Amino acid sequence: MKRNPYFNFYPADFMNGVRGLSAQEVGVYTMLLCRIYEEDGPVEYHVRRLATYCGMREATFEKVVEKLVDLGKMSIGNGMLSNARAEAEISKRANGLEIASRAGKASAEKRQQNQRTEATPVQRAFNHTDTEEEKKEREPNGSPKKSDAVLVREYLAEVVGPEVAEAFIAHRHKLRKPMTPRAAKMIADKLRKAADPKACADLSILKGWQDVFPENPNLPQSRQVAPAGADWWGGRDL
User: Fold this and answer.
1) 159 and 192 in contact (C-beta within 8 Å)?
2) Which of the four, 93, 124, 126, 201, has the lowest number of CB atoms within 10 Å?
3) What's the pTM value of the predicted model, to 2 decimals?
C-alpha cells in the first residue's frame, strides 16, 4: 500500500481542540491521529497494539481513549477507531494529490511535445526523457528498487498482516534494535512456523523480547524473561 508522507496541520484548530486535555491525553490523541493519517482511514481498535504504539500500559491507554471518545475526539465503531476531521482531511488530501498528479503529467507531456517540435534531431536525442514504458523495459520486473524500510514491512506483513507488522517494527525501534531486511525475512520465516503467527509476534511485544519463539506458543504470562535460548544470537542484531 502506498503511504502518503504528510497531512495538513492547522495549529489554531488543534490547540482549540485539545484545550483542557492533560499532556498524556494530548500525546495519545496525537499518536492516534498520526496512525489514522498513516493508514489513510480508520484503524483497528486493538488495545495491545495501539498501547504499545503509544508506549503505555493497556489499562491507562483504555482510560485515555474512553475519555477521548466521551469528548467526541475519537469514535469507535465495528471495531475500528477513527476521527471525523481526519477522515475529511484524508479525502481532501487524496483529491488534491490526484489533481496535482494529473496536472503534472499534462505539463510533462506538453513540454515533451514542445521539445519534439522545436528541437533539432541532435537536440531531441540529447534531451530525450524516457517514457514509462521504456523505464519498465529497462528495470527488473518493471518496478523500482524498494527501500529497506519497505522490504522490512512487506516481509512481516506477508505473515502477520500490516497492523501486527507495524507494531513489531515499532517495538524493535523502541528496543533500539531496528531490523534489516534480512533480519525481518528471518523473523518472518520463524513466524510461519507458529500455530498463530500474530499471537507469537504479540507475545514478543508484550514480553519485550527482541526475537520471536514459535516453538513456545504457551509460555506463562507471569514470566518476565525470555525462554531458555532467547539470547542465542550472541550479541548479533537480528
Assistant:
1) yes
2) 126
3) 0.42
DSSP labels, the chain: -PPPS-----HHHHHHHHTT--HHHHHHHHHHHHHHHHTTS-EE--HHHHHHHHTS-HHHHHHHHHHHHHTTS-EEETTEEE-HHHHHHHHHHHHHHHHHHHHHHHHHHHHHHHHHHHS-HHHHHHT----HHHHHHHSGGGSPPPPHHHHHHHHHHHHHHHHHHHHHHHHHHHTT-PPPHHHHHHHHHHHHTSSSHHHHHHHHHHHT-SS--TT-TT--TT--SPPTTTTTTTT---
- List, in sequence order, every residue forming a beta bridge with 76; answer none if it has no partner: 81
Beta bridge partners of 81: 43, 76
pLDDT in tens, 212-222: 998 765 554 44
Q: Which grid coordinates are listed for 37?
A: 493519517
Q: Residue 233, Cα to own-chain centre: how many angstroms? A: 27
Ramachandran sector of residue 77 (left: φ over 0; alpha: ψ -120 to 50; beta: rest): beta
Q: Which of 26, 28, 6 is nearest to 16 (CA)?
A: 26
57-61, 74-78, 223-227, range with the lowest pLDDT = 223-227
Q: Residues 167-206, buried b or exposed e (16+ Cβ, 10 A)?
A: bbbbbbeeeeeebebebbbbbbebbeebeebbebbbbbbe
And the C-alpha cell for 215? 516453538
Residues in the chain: 238
CA 116 – CA 172 distance, rounded (Å): 52
Q: Do the Cβ atoms of 80 and 43 come closer than 8 Å? A: yes
